[in-house]
Amino acid sequence: MLRENQRRFKFDWITIILFLLLVGFGYLNILSASHVGEVTNYFDTSELYGKQLIFIGLTFVLIVLILSFEAKFYERFASIIYLVAILALIGLFIFGKDVNGARSWYGIGSMTIQPSEFAKFATSLAVAKYISDLQTNMQTLKDQLRVTAIIFIPALLILLQNDAGSTIVYLAFFFVFYREGLQQVYLIIALSLIILAVLGLKFGIAVTAVIASIIILSTYFLRKKKRGSILQYIVVLVVSIGFSYGVKLFYEHGLKAHQQNRISLWLRLEKDPAKLEKMKKEEAYNLIQSEQAISSGSWTGKGFLQGTRTTGKFVPEQETDYIFSTVGEEWGFLGSSFVVILFVLLIIRILYLAESQKSQFSRVYGYGVASILFIHFTINTGMVMGLIPTVGIPLPFFSYGGSGLWGFTILLFIFIKLDSNKINEW
Amino acid sequence: MRKLLLLTTVVLVGLVFIARLFYLQVYSSSGYDIFEDNAIKKEYNYPKRGYVYDRNGQLLVANQPSYDVMVIPREVAPMDSATIQEFCKLLKITEEEYDKKLRRATNYSPRLSSPFVQQLSKNDYAVLQEKMRKFEGFYIQKRSLRSYQTTIGANVLGDIGEVNRKIIADQPYYRLGDLIGKQGVEKTYEQTLRGVKGIKFIQKDRFNKNIGPYKDGIFDTLPKPGKDITLTIDAELQAYGELLMKHKRGGIIALDPSSGEILAMVSGPSYNPNLLVGRDRSRNFSKLYTDTIAKPLFDRGLQAQYPPGSPFKVINALIGLQEGVVNTNERFTCRMGYYYGSRRLTGCHHHRSPVAMNDGIAQSCNAYFVNVYRRIIDKYEDPGKGMNTWANHAKSFGLGNYLNNDLSVGSKGRIPDGDYYDRAYGDNRWGSTYIVSNAIGQGEVEATPIQLANMAAAIGNRGYYYTPHIIKNIEGETIDPKYTTPKYTTIDKQYFEPVVQGMFDVYNKGTAATLRVPGIDICGKTGTAENFVRIDSLKTQLTDHSIFVAFAPKENPKIAIAVFVENGYWGSRFAGRMASLMIEKYIKGHITRTDLERWILTHSLENEYAKPYSGEPFKINGETTLQVIDNYAIENSNQSNLKQ
Fold this sequence. Notes:
The structure holds 2 protein chains of 2 kinds. Chain A is 71% helix and 3% strand. By secondary structure, chain A is mostly helical. Chain A has 2 domains: 2-181 and 284-424, no CATH class; 183-254, no CATH class. By secondary structure, chain B is of the alpha+beta class. In chain B, strands 2, 3, 4, 5, 10 and 16 form a 6-stranded mixed sheet that branches. The A-B interface holds A 37, 175, 178-179, 181, 187, 278, 281, 289, 291, 294-299, 302, 306, 308-309, 311-316, 328, 332-333, 336-337, 340-341, 343-344, 347-348, 351, 355, 367, 370-371, 374, 377-378, 381-382, 385-387 and B 2-3, 5-7, 9-11, 13-14, 16-18, 20-22, 24-26, 28-29, 31-32, 34, 37, 39-40, 78, 203-206, 211-212, 214-215.
């Protein structure tokens, strides 16, 4: 009996407190971003802040539900949960509802549900399940391909629904694979590809080719032992340049105009001031407004509900993707740094817990949670403060929306449940 | 190692984000300034600028509405060329001008509003107002411009113009496009006349729509109207003075000795104050400003320092009596000048000799005053001390320093003291004979017409004066007590009577005998001052200045006046005539000596002023003939209403 009691309270309260702080602070900012005039009824469901309060209320029901299942349930049913999620994504093509050009919603009465938000934890479970299988060896190409397929299916489905932002999130699993034994060379390749892409776009193919040649050929000449045939190096060089060129071609012909503009603005590719001005007006309106709102916050911000740009609704989509600009304006440098620190602490805490897991399934899943939260946080916040090109994904626990909040809550609390179970894992 | 990749990435990203936030919010942000926040619209409400009246209640300056098109560059929405064309047509500007103006405003500040096109006519405003909504980022600001009810007194009234960036930096009350007093009473009474503008802060949304007062209007203020002021100026006298000064250069200052109030303040040449109103202001202003020959913006009554000439002799007489170096009966010989040994230090004109003080003043004898002056300086063991004593007496008449009053400009004048000559000649290497020119108001002594008028007032009051000032009354305020407190000279009262008598005799039997005004006892003093200019680096003498200083009546004077006419040749020729006309006009209200008036109005000195610029050799003083002009000025004077 005593042991039962102890076990029940073995949840990691630090994670839960960080979660509560984020959700609570997020709600205050949604209230600020969505209210018009005096707030008379905080539960007014015709207003976004009222709806969010209900979403938050339901979240606690969800938490109790998640924590009440046996921890083993999630491992055992991981594949099934994954299948359900995939089916839900496929179903969108038939029953889905178009919102802003993306077909990623189910409409149930006045409610809408976005299955891609739930696919993240399902994929995490499936990845954890596959990697933790005794048969799996992440060093082998076969398993690498299979596990990539697990994330590739939902990512592709989401991309087909025209939600490129949510697709990018699946890159988060790279961190998981790497932790679980993916060879170092992949990391080097990934970094090289990023550098090649950026170099090619920013400085053109010729410059990229020169830089790549210098690096690759000097590697060959400096390596005295085991340097192999020069042919191999030339192949790598050609592939590199080819990739860089491919990226450029893709940028010029494969991307939609608005995506192209976003990257152009980010890398400052447009030199013609008139065109740049036009591009800024069309594409960077949100970004400029958001940066201005954040800048105007100074040290301590203008105060809760006092943001002039928030009140004036200067930043479009402020309660969803751009919620961080409200934090910046009303709570200033201190408030927004606080939010950054909360996220960093939460992710570090999850990583710490993941490393302390005895079961590989729990560890891989925990890594998945940390990686997904990290990608969301980095892309969203980086975008709002103008460090990363515009990608429309929400800030976990902060942004307005039921599906998002629930998706992240399930993601996090399954891990809390798994973690609470580690004493039984002897 | 594998465990650390995500961990370090997370920490790194966190640090980069905090650094970015610091850059955005602290480093590159100058703190929150509501005036720079384009989410908050600032609506200014300019109060009525105070009216200006003359001492008799005549309205001189009122207001007229004016409409400026303002721009906030960052809020300017992209317009297609047809819209821009339409806008330019409404504003009556070309498209190049449109681009230029927009660029200039953007350079000043993309966030703050700048004037775009100023002072639209009423018709343009009416047409534009209806279409204004089409042109995002532009708005119309109503202001109030001056409306002069008169064509005179430009130098008195001054004008208002747009604040420049330096003013904005020094005085944050002003914003670009605001108007401020630039000259005259508009400048000195800016705070009183201007009032305080009201401001409304309005929360806008991103479609530039007003969504209500910012923070329920707790920061909003109501405009406080400017206060009306009444000047000491007598508009009729001022207008008459300006009429007399036509075709001449110089200044007339008339004071009321019993209060220090300035009755008239004429500077010639003058201009119509209406030139500096409205859209033409800057063009007209630069025309006036760049006229470096006639210098119409230079207020000769207040700023021009001239050698005062003979009127300064009476000061030496007073100092001599106060220092006890001369009495009223002592006579001095004049042999057409003052001789030091066999050397003639100064010349004189023909008059009977020897003379005592009364005739010394009335006949303006140079030799008499050189004697008196040398005795003052030589009374003391060293000339420096004597010079300082002399200078202190002279300065107690308000000479040699700023009057420190409510006029926007002024000059110090110059009363040299011992140190001055120590610097010029070396310590104690000079004596009274070096500096005898000061005895007759030449040499190093310089004074402005207003200082001379004030000097006359102090003599008329027998030993005290009130600081000359131009404010008579401010709506609901009392005027500065420094204007109602008398300032005493260092000369005892009893010494004034003989000097006043001498000045009275200037009219009776002396240098101004022809200028008597029937029924008014005038005391005055003529003056003639030599003057020189440099032409092609050669010191060249020009025709003498004509100077006259007077007060009237002799007992309890009502008016003290100084008239200075550049190159008018001798004291009673121009300045004396004009002073007597001014006195008659003020005291009687009309002119009985119309032939005298006619003479002044039909004689011009324009030829005289053109000489140094002609590039040819020219004659001066007695060898010249006076220019007679047609009689349009006379017709002017016959108009019953000189004010409009």
